[in-house]
Design a protein that fits this description.
Two copies of one chain form a homodimer. In chain A, helix 1 crosses helix 2, helix 5 runs antiparallel to helix 9 and helix 7 crosses helix 8. Chain A has ten helices and no strands. The first copy, chain A, has about 230 residues and is mainly α. The radius of gyration of chain A is 23 Å and the shape is elongated. About 5% of the residues of chain A have low confidence. In chain A, about 30% of the residues are buried. Chains A and B meet through helix 7, helix 8, helix 9 and helix 10 of A and helix 7, helix 8, helix 9 and helix 10 of B. Chain A binds a DNA duplex (30 and 30 nucleotides) through helix 1 and helix 3.
Chain lengths: ~230, ~230
Amino acid sequence: MTSRNILETKYRISEIAMALFLKEGYANVTVEAVAEASSVSRRTVFRHFQSKDELVFPDHTEHLGLVERCLAESAPGTDPVDAVIAATEESLRDFLSRPELVLRRYKLTRVVPELRKREVVEHERYVALTRSFLRDRLPPDAPSFQSMALAALIDAIHRSALGNWVREGGATDPLAELAAGMEWVRRLMVHQSAFSTAPVLLALLPDTPQTRRVLTSLKDQAKELD
Amino acid sequence: MTSRNILETKYRISEIAMALFLKEGYANVTVEAVAEASSVSRRTVFRHFQSKDELVFPDHTEHLGLVERCLAESAPGTDPVDAVIAATEESLRDFLSRPELVLRRYKLTRVVPELRKREVVEHERYVALTRSFLRDRLPPDAPSFQSMALAALIDAIHRSALGNWVREGGATDPLAELAAGMEWVRRLMVHQSAFSTAPVLLALLPDTPQTRRVLTSLKDQAKELD
DNA sequence: ACAGTCAGTGGCACCCAGTGCCGTACATCG
DNA sequence: CGATGTACGGCACTGGGTGCCACTGACTGT
């Protein structure tokens, strides 16, 4: 309960600070002003946040912990890429559960270069996490850059989905976008490992309902190519 | 020539600063100390470098300019992905032309978190450049995340190649690694653009030599899958 | 009930990165 | 030779971030 109070004050300070930043401009608001508006001392602000820019990312520690737990708790048998995809989805869900925070943060990071830098660094932490996870679990005969490339790829799709959502003011379906992107990644992986060199063998009995469905599907897709 | 002298002093200050950072530790060296060791005033250091951490990245402006020029000068007809790949290769070459700087920077960024953050931000700039280039030139029907994903992917491979080289003390061939990674990317793109989304429609007349050849070929390849 | 412990806090002094401003030395140009 | 422009030094000042000490209130064991 003490630990809940400390989180409450932390988030309270963060909210007040972000409101101030939005109203007066990040550079024009001193930590002193944030402390006064929050009715705490300057020293206390710096106990809860290691730096001024962290006031805009009060959830980053918990968030990273969530992703880490997701990866650690993934069933040992699952494909590592699938595990990372599941963790990424969980991460996105976590962001979506705090829409006000994410939206206000977006408004700030778009305008204040320093905060954008901090956001980039935050994402890098997340990428590093998934990268080391993949490096440990991916088959050792994979090219050395693959874990890094995959981690960057998945993070890019994650950022794209969240970015579109926040840019459109919450009108898109980021989870669907993420799923589509991840499907893309999965296909890339599959192509790499087997299907790109292996033929798809499809046997169809003539004039059955299944055959008709396949053929009309093919015909539809072929039309779209024109 | 004045502009060459200013670059000379800039690089001179940078070298002295990096040597000091390596010897005494980044946090233990004040900008004042760097200025003294370089026989210039503190104010002059801050005229050449916008911040203390930039002392370790004296080439970043030129480097970014190089990449930007590479992209801008790419022939209009070339595939945008190929243009980015060429620019990335040029970027890697530029790094390799300053091995001492890159190696010392590596030693510092591995140890000093603040400098690693700065490095991440530096890479982000480069990714943003290629991303906007790709977004402008990629076919508009491509998925929205593709430019971001491609840029991240290419940067990851670039970092991986340079990172391996620097970790192994210059014993690897980073340009070859980059080329291999880029070949991988190119294959992904080909699969994406045609083979994976478009159906292959194959019509075979029954019982002709062509049909028999196709069928035996398929059968042989299917056997290899077991 | 009482002393001890510990987490959260306030207050203060201090360091140092980064900026604005002004004066100066020197090179270039008309 | 005066005028302009550029690189630099000196200096004062703001503000982020830290170390240290003292206080308070809640919890714990005897």
